[in-house]
Structures are given as C-alpha cells and as structure tokens.
Amino acid sequence: MKYISTRGKAPVLNFEQAMMTGLARDGGLYLPETIPTLSPDDIAALAGLSYEETAFRIMKPFIGDCFTDDEFRDIIAKAYAGFGHAARAPLVQLDSNHFLLELFHGPTLAFKDFAMQLIGQLFQASLKRSGGHVTIAGATSGDTGSAAIEAFKGLEAVDVFILFPHGRVSEVQRRQMTTPAESNVHALAMDGHFDDCQARVKDMFNDFDFRDGVHLAGVNSINFARVLAQVVYYFSSAVSLGAPQRKVSFTVPTGNFGDIFAGYIAKRMGLPIDRLVVATNQNDILHRCLSSGDYRPDGVVPSISPSMDIQVSSNFERALFYAYDQDGAAVAQLMEELSAGGFTVSQGALQALREVFDSGHCSEAETSATIRTLFDTTGELLCPHSAVGVKVANELRDADVPMITLATAHPAKFPAAVEAASGQHPDLPTRMADLYDRSERVSRIANDLGAIEDLIKDRIAK
Ligand SMILES: Cc1ncc(COP(=O)(O)O)c(C=O)c1O
Ligand SMILES: N[C@@H](CCOP(=O)(O)O)C(=O)O
C-alpha cells in the first residue's frame, strides 16, 4: 500500500513511513493511493467478532507488510486492553432507530484514545526497530493532547510537546495534560486559539531544518494512522445494527474533520452508509461551506464544546482531494487561497461533497437544552460535543434508517457545562478521582514559531 499527498508533490511512502512522517513535505496530508474495499460477505463476517479482531481485519489492508500479522495483532491487543468497557465502543439506544456510540471508555475519556493508544503502540514498535528518537509536536483543543500524553508518557524514544490554547480548554482536559510527572511530557499553554496552535505545528513541519534536526513526528489527525484507527468503530457499530444487509447513517460532532473523514473512508471501503452528517457548534464553518460552497474562517468563538472550537479544519483538505478527483494541484491552489483568507468550492466538487455529507449546527442554548432533555427522557448524560451531535441528528435523521450519533467524550471532562445544563454533576472514574489534587507542570508560550522551536530544541538537548 502506497501513500500519496493531497497536494501531489511529496514523496510516495509506505504506511510506516507515512505514519512516522506526519505532514507531507509539500504541506499536504497523506492518504492511501487506493482505498481497499471489503465485499458484503467480508463485512457480514465481522458480526460477533471482538473489537480487536474487527480492528485487525479493517486496518490490515492499509498496513501492507510493514508489520507482521502477529506483531499487528499484539499491537491492537495492547492498545485496547486498558479500555473500561468490554465492547470498547458500546452502542446505546436513545430512541426508535437512534443510537449513541459511546467512544469515551478509553484511558482519557474521549474518542481520541481509540487512535492514540494504537499509534502509541505502533510508534513504539517502529522506533524499537529503527533505534531512533522522535520529537512529537501536537496541537490540541483539549482531547488530542491528553490522549497523546497518555499514550506516549514515559517512553525513552519520544519527547511529546503539546500546544493547547491558554484558558480555552476545560479544567479536566488541562489537568490531564499538565499533571503527568514523566519528564518526556511537555505541556505548552499558548496564547491564541486552537487554529493558532495547529498552524504553528504545521509551520514546524514546513521548517525543514527544524523538522529534520529534531526528528519531528505528528500525532494530530494529519497522521493518517489516526484516521485509520477511527474507521474501525464505524464498521463495528454498523454491523451490530445489521450491516451490510441494512444501511445506517452517522452523525459526527465535528471540528477538525478527522472523525467524520474516517466514516467517509469506511463508506468508500464498502460499508453501506446512507448519510454522514457533520454536526458543528457555533463555529460552524463546515456547515456553512457545505451549504454555500464558501470556506472563509471568520474567527473562533469560545463555546461550551471547546474541543470543536475550530475554523481551519485540517482534514477537510482530504475530503476536498476526493471531491476534486484527486487533483493535488487544485487542492494546493485552494490551500493557498485559504492562507490568503478563504476559498470557494467549485460546483462539481460541492455536489460531490453533498452526495455524501449532510450538515447542521447547534447553538449554545440548544446544546444545553439537548443535554437536559436527553437526561430527563433517557437518563443518558451527554458531554456538550455529543449533545451537538444528538441535536443535529434529531433534526436531520430519516426515521427509516438507523442513525448512530457518535458520543465523543465523557461528560465528566466538562462538568461545569453539563451540571449547568442538567443539574447533574458528572463524576470522574475513581482512577482519576485525585486529578484536582495533583500538581501541575506547564509552560506559558507566545504564539511565536521561533520561541516554540527554541523551547523544544532546548528541552530535548537536556
Ligand atoms: C470531544 C470531541 N468531540 C468532537 C471532536 C471533533 O472531532 P474532529 O476534530 O475529528 O472533527 C473533538 C476534537 O477533535 C473532540 O475532542
Ligand atoms: N478536537 C481536537 C483538535 C485536534 O484534532 P486532531 O484530530 O487533528 O488531533 C482536540 O481535542 O485536540
């Protein structure tokens, strides 16, 4: 399996190389040259399998011969051993034909653990073979950072630097990043919002002297391995509701477009997905773009679903690549226009996107009302991101097609917003009960590429 860049001008790599490379050297994002497909019989055969075996069968064609079957099975087993639910990603029924896919039973209580625990194991296996050391630089609006730190803390072959927007993540998210004592963990509270953090991480990758000097690696969804791991739960949940004989739809609370793009890959692999619904909070650039064709960031407004406070949605570039018939030059042109303020999607490409994706948005008041109503009617306590998904799903779903809404984080990561909405205080699991008592270690940093690079060089030299 070969991996190519969305901008068409970077070296073609295998899975392991693409995983360890992060951002392509032309600024684009790696994707498999062709998307493997599963027959209806292959999909039917997933029924009743463990999550781990499903993961092996879905991901193996993308990995090629980079890892032996035994190695890869062992990696998957280790990745999911620490999850707090036997099903890993259990489905809960909310209403007639509406289901919630609970993706928050991993170690840091958000869907990011599904991919991050896996790539933590993949990186370790790869670095053990090469004997190298990498410097991970990641940007987070709260959940990627804590999942990355949990997956990589204490590893000798890795230093992990996480940029998060100062004052714009929940206290639980911040503490998950700032309380680990391992010396290879570096939490950096940056001035600005998530888009600034993500831009600085991409700047570091585009600074080749720095990138090559520190052996930079990426664990944001710029890394295709992150997206790949998330494809698995689309299959496991759809099959448990009757796929491939029965079509299903998904609603995905969306910010950086990685999770819903994993659903797009699942659809292209042959999973009979009817609609993929993009659910945004008040930072609704994706909804506006899918409605009008215009993609023009106009500033992030902080919300009670802070992990989705994003206006420059990294993986939308991957969706555009397919919508523009894999024309790297066209994508590169759009991204150049984005740097200058924004772009308009061509009519043909917009039509291609709309053939797959629907979209909706959810105001702050609607998010709170959804948390309250769902708790009152079903006893299910949602995090604000999942509530955005449920609200949009209820609005757009077709009563005859099962709708699966992704519950992307545990309510206890956002206790203030959840309690204000529902009157219920969501408790952290007992293993985290002392999170508020642990001491924090964090560096404040300006939104300044030079200052960030200097800090990283200085820390890894020690
Ligand atoms: C809890 C939560 N929900 C939803 C999202 C949006 O996911 P994506 O960025 O993959 O669209 C995020 C952040 O990525 C998140 O942390
Ligand atoms: N919401 C994310 C933002 C980063 O997204 P990623 O999928 O590209 O890592 C977060 O919680 O950090």
Automatic annotation (TrEMBL):
Q: Which cofactor does it need?
A: pyridoxal 5'-phosphate
SUPFAM superfamilies with a match to the protein in the record: Tryptophan synthase beta subunit-like PLP-dependent enzymes
Task: Offer an example of a GO molecular function term for this protein.
Answer: threonine synthase activity
What is the protein's name according to its record? Threonine synthase
Entry-annotated residues carrying N6-(pyridoxal phosphate)lysine: 112
Which UniProt keyword terms apply here?
Answer: Amino-acid biosynthesis, Lyase, Pyridoxal phosphate
What's its top-level EC category?
Answer: lyase
